[in-house]
Structure formats: structure tokens, C-alpha cells
Amino acid sequence: MKVIVVGTGYVGLVTGACLAEVGTNVVCVDVNEAKIKDLQNGILPIYEPGLEEVVHRNFQNGRLSFSTDLASVIPGAELAFIAVGTPPGEDGSADLKYVLQVAKEIGASMTNYLVVVTKSTVPVGTAVKVNRAIKQALQERDQLLDYDVASNPEFLKEGAAVADFMKPDRIVVGVNTEKAQQVLENLYHPFVLNGRPIVFMDIASAEMTKYAANAMLATKISFMNDIANLCELTGADVNKVRKGIGSDPRIGDRFIYPGIGYGGSCFPKDVKALVRTGKEYGHAMRILESVEAVNEDQKKVMFNKIDRHFESDLQGKTFAIWGLSFKPNTDDMREAPSIVLIEALLNAGAKVRVFDPVAMHEAKKELGERVTWGTDLYDAANGADGIVLVTEWNEFRLPDWNRIKDSVKAAVVFDGRNIYDDVTLQKKGFIYYGIGLAR
Ligand code: UGA
């Protein structure tokens, strides 16, 4: 089976590489020539554990190739995935111009029956627009070729993308013909041998499933952040509350970790887009409006704690920031809460020393020379008045606190992810602040 994947971002590249890994012939297409040239030379545009090996292996065995020329690779393909970006427009709605441009190009170059699948996160109704764009392009060529559109949202998590794709919890596919269903069933057969389901449904429901899943997860996080803040005020400890509620399988123990707000390229964008879709249909998504508002406030929680501790006198103080990416195991800085915190510290006249195991290169694009770039966590902490744990990378979990104590100016730790034990740190002579803990 020959498959085309258009867009070599997180979703497209992982999809292409993992499909090739199980034996499918895949051509990944992108308009960015430099990116395609790099991929042909084995250089990946993103850091994602395990991805480089899968890309290299399948590029070498010839099942995975890269091209900038969509029109020349479409003929002969059975399936084309659209996995290009859907950046948020000014009003929060997903901008479909790239998706529809690709649909048009596919319609202009296809030569045989093709299933065109949207994999980008796209609002309900997009498949209809994709269909229209293809049909129009075919009409312009006076061609009456048979094709189907389908929706196959992706649920992979950055940092675990390859593992998530290879062993999915479920695969959701929206189709409106038997023929398209058969093609997708064949494609995904190797991924559901573990008994996990392919859930077939109509296209609108598949499109909505993606948003509903992300919105539910974002809701869990904002809910816990709200509870955490109330815990602080009432003398309760959110770590205990989390364990207390998480053991109820109806609630579950995952995605209920309070922190400094969710970030990344998905939750913030998708929550806004669903609120926007609600507005379009005259339905206020009141829960999601609050989820977003709570998240915006949560990004400021750590700064407020720091400001209170130093009695609003941050001028000339130095802070170490451990972790910059929006979560561990990725270099993705999109909507990273670290940036909000660092900007607030710099605005208050503080100096900032940062360290991240992988994301410093990405973060430099935003922060430039306004912060000092540490060589490791100890270097970042050197001479600091406070250490702020922002991203819970494994290598931050067990630092040598005695060594740190000797090199800091003041032994204060602000733990944005509750990964340290307050009692242990206090015994070692540190003042400790977490999220949602009784003081
Ligand atoms: C998210 C979803 O988890 C994926 O299923 C989905 O496919 C993806 O969006 C997407 O739409 O493409 P991702 O953004 O990679 O994946 O990252 P998550 O692991 O979900 O984390 C998102 C944010 O929530 C991070 O900032 C993380 O620190 C935060 N988070 C997560 C918490 O604050 N608490 C938690 O308990 C869990």
C-alpha cells in the first residue's frame, strides 16, 4: 500500500515513520524544502524519543521517503493523510487554509481512487470542506474520479509519540463509505493486534471526539489546579487529595497532577477552538471557558509565590529555572508556562539562569540573551536566591541538594510540579514551596 502523508510536524512525521515501520510504503511531503532536505540527510526537525531510529531505519530500507512535490507523488497512492498545521486564528478558531490548500492540490493531481484523511486536529465540518475542495479541483480538470474523505484524529502525546502510535489505546476513524472503512482497516490492522479497538464512526463524531478528548483532559488539569489553590487556603494537601480521589476508577489517577498550568501545541489551542465552535453555534461552552481562565491564572501562581516570599522585592535577585519545555521529553516550547514565569521575573527586575536538558536551543529563539544559559542544573542554581522547578525532567528528580546548598545564595525551592518531598528538603535546610500544599 502506498500512503502519502502531507505535513512533517509531530503528527505527520510520526505517522509516516510508524506506518513505514510496519511495512507500508510512505512518502512524507512538506512545502518546507530545507526540512525535507534535512530529513533526506537523516536530520529530524523535532526531538522525540525513538523517532530518529524509526525514520533512519525506514529511510534506509526504502519504505519511507521525503518529497516537496505533492503532485508528483499522489498518483498511485491509496491513501493521503493531511497532517499540516491548523494554527489558531485571531478569534481562537482553527485556521484551515493549509488543510484546504492541500486538499485542492490532491484533487488537482490524483489519478485513481484515493481516501483523503484529515489527521490534523480540525473542527467539526472540516471534512465537508475538504470534500468540496477536492471536488472543485477535480471538476476544474474535468475528471470524475472516485474518492472518499475520512477523519482519523491522532491521540499521541509528545515525548511518547512513537510508543503511543505503535500501541494506541484506540484508533478513531470517521468514514462514510464501506470502501474507505476497508482501506483504513487494512492500514491499521498491524496496530490493533494487541486487541485495542479501531472505533469506526461518522465523520463529524470523529472530528468532535478529538476535541472532546483534549478538552476533557485539560478540564481535569484545571480542575485539579483549582482544587490545589483551595487546598492551600484551607490547610489541605493536594498530593493527598489527589491520591484520595485517584484511586476511584471513575476518576482515575492520571492527568490529575496540579502544576503551573498546561501548555503545548494542543490543549490551549483545542480548548479555545471548541469554545469558538460553541459560539459559532450559539452555545456557550461555560466549563471550557473556565478551564481556560483557570489555566491562564495558574501560569502566574509560581511568580506570585516568589513575589510574596521576597516581599515584592525581586530587583537584582537571581532565580534558577529548571526545565523550559512545556513538559519533559520534548524540546517543544509552544505555550510553555516557563516563558510566562521568566517574563514576569525579568519584568520585576530579577536575573534568570536557566537549564533544560533538550529545549535550550528552541528556548533561545524566544529568550535570546535576556537570561543566562546554564550548562547543567547545578550551574543554573549557582548563586541563586531561589530555584524554580518548572518541567519535571527525570534528571531533576534527585539532585545533590548538599552540593546545591553550598552554591546558592539562599536555599529556597519553588517546586512547580510537586516532585520533591517537602520534609526532606526542609531537613536539608531549604525553604520549600509546592503547589496546593498546606503550610
Ligand atoms: C495532548 C494529549 O494528551 C494527546 O492525547 C493529544 O494527542 C495531543 O495533546 C494532541 O492533541 O496532539 P501533549 O500536548 O503532547 O498531548 O501533552 P500532555 O502530556 O497531554 O500534556 C499537556 C500539558 O498538560 C503539559 O503542559 C503537562 O505538563 C500538563 N499536565 C498533564 C498537567 O499539568 N497535569 C497532568 O496531570 C497532566
From TrEMBL:
Catalytic activity: UDP-alpha-D-glucose + 2 NAD(+) + H2O = UDP-alpha-D-glucuronate + 2 NADH + 3 H(+)
Residues annotated to bind substrate: 155-158, 210, 255-259, 263, 327
InterPro entries recorded: 6-PGluconate_DH-like_C_sf, NAD(P)-bd_dom_sf, UDP-Glc/GDP-Man, UDP-Glc/GDP-Man_DH_C, UDP-Glc/GDP-Man_DH_C_sf, UDP-Glc/GDP-Man_DH_dimer, UDP-Glc/GDP-Man_DH_N, UDPglc_DH_bac
Gene3D superfamilies: Cytochrome c1, transmembrane anchor, C-terminal, NAD(P)-binding Rossmann-like Domain
Annotated metabolic or biological route of this protein: Nucleotide-sugar biosynthesis; UDP-alpha-D-glucuronate biosynthesis; UDP-alpha-D-glucuronate from UDP-alpha-D-glucose: step 1/1
UniProt KW keywords: NAD, Oxidoreductase
Superkingdom of origin organism: Bacteria
GO MF annotation terms: NAD binding; UDP-glucose 6-dehydrogenase activity
Family indicated by similarity: Belongs to the UDP-glucose/GDP-mannose dehydrogenase family.
Protein name (record): UDP-glucose 6-dehydrogenase
Species annotation: Chitinophaga rupis
